Amino acid sequence: MARKAQQQASQAVDTENKTSGGFGAAASSIGGPLTAQLQSEATNPTGFSPEDINSMLVGGEEAAGGATGDLASDASLAAARTRNTGSTSGVLDALQRQKTQTLGANALGVQNQNAMLKQTKQQDAQRALQGLFGTDVNAQLSAMGLVPGTVNAETNAGSQGWLQNVEGIGNMITGGGQAAGSILKGLQ
Fold this sequence. Notes:
Layout: H1 2-43, H2 50-82, H3 88-158, H4 162-187
């Protein structure tokens, strides 16, 4: 029975070592490319693509142009009807200032959104890298941590058997003889 326990313990050690190695290999194959990509994102985060930024800016320009364009044509039409074109210059100037402010606010908003997206991506990449490292290391260490207990079980299983039992009986007889000798000495 002791030999079987030793064999099982030995097989368990092999299994634990293979499992540990498997976690290490899986971490390397998955983690290598993923880690490189996450490190790149952590150091040089990307925001919106240039095409997306352009679309956002153009959308803002169209809205600003449409709103002020209607007002400008209405002011010009009213001036033509009343034959008072001198009054339109102040209105048109105010409309142009409002359009320029709207375009500037839109451009600033797009750039702020882009900066926030970059910061979010950078923080997400750093958290993902931290999580990958912790998961890989913990799985590998857990599998490796099983080995000492299994080795102890193997050692303990090897300390039982007919030879060890004979040695134990011999030690018991020797100990009993010594005790009997001590008792006899004490009687004398």
